[in-house]
Target: Acid phosphatase
Amino acid sequence: MYFRLDKTALAAVALAPAIQLSSAETILGAYVFHRHGDRTPKSIPPASLTDLGYVEVLDRGTYYHSRYIASDSPTQILGIQSEIVKLSQLAVTSPSDSVLQNSAAGWLQGLYPPAGAASNQTLRNGTTIEAPLNGFQLIPIAIQSSGSGSESNSWLQSAANCQNADISSNEFFSSDLYNSYESSTKSLYQGLSPVVNATFSESQLSFLNAYTIWDLLNVGMIHNSTTTYPALSNVSDDTMNELFQLANIHEFNLAYNESSTIRAISGMTLASQVLTALNKTITGNGKSPSLNVQFGAYATFLSYFGLANLTAVNADFFGIPDYASSMTWELVTNATVANASSFPSTSDISVRFLFNNGTSAASDNLTAFPLFGGSALELPWDDFVTSTQKFAVTGQEQWCQVCGNTTGICASSSSSSASASSTSSSGSGMSNAVAGVIGAMVTLGVVLGLEVLGLLAGGLRVVRKRSLAAAGAAASSSAVNAGDEK
Model:
């Protein structure tokens, strides 16, 4: 049985000293996977980013500006523009989801804030054009089709469209672990009826809805006063802590299982994205993005935590990351680097993994953790590639095989992994271990930050503090009834 620490303990992940760079170290590039900010509950779709959530992601974007972008930062990414964004150096993606897209947009305002007069342009005739909104910088966000509406989708495995992952996650609901908690927590959930009976029936008040119930009450505790909702005063801090621990158990076991790793398909595809993007940074000779950013929700965090064996490093990794959390993979070297277009040999490049638990963290700083059950905070590039390839899903053909899908994008017998062997040249300083990865980037709709959660209908009717109009696609999925999740 997994032991889950409470939310306060989870914040302790960030209490370790922030990583200190040696004076000779250079950061060549980074990949950031980021959770959205505070939102309205999933059980009242469509979920919306709140004003608080907007502030949270803006603050985190500002932190990343100070770490990677600012010209006076000792951890500035090699060659990156410090004031006016150079779009070729930055790649940002998000599923078609209003909460995630708006979070990405707010985060980017912190990463590259309005540039003021520095963004003005002078025309040939001498006219000075002042950029709107004090030099607000327009940065595109690439939208992924898979995972659409994931923050309003109550059963996120369906958003992954991976048949075997769906089956694997549903197996949790017939496991001894699940049945034990379903039985032992019945009275706890039934006792919440006066607080959540506006949308939850008596039959829905059980461990089956562990995350949805906690999520709803968590939002209510943040946004609603007991004057408006007197029933909230009957929910103690101890009860919320217990509900949070149960939600951790529920969600981690839906996102990862050691004996059925296909359940972690979201972490597998994320691993492929990270590997491909970092490899392109290395081999791009300064022409590929050096900072890659993807927004997604917590199930992908949990899947990757399990796959990368981070749970062996700290039991807090069994827990749900808080709003605005992020995990980052940095390319670092101690070799002398002349400029951004002359990277060192891959034998001189390492990867460092860092995590920050968002609004639960005692510090804004990222904290380094060893990957894959090891002890080293920095892994040689080739070792990182070898370990990641053990579980990364690196192509459409492989995705179809492991998922057991035979329809849609998997229907054609000619479907392949984008010719993984066609770009096996190592003439760009690429190690043999990396050579087979370059062409294996999963196609749109497969290479995604997929989520592996089971979220159900119901919830307290909280005040909905919306922030930002939906930028692009509106989240339209409605909640799934408890009976639909087996």
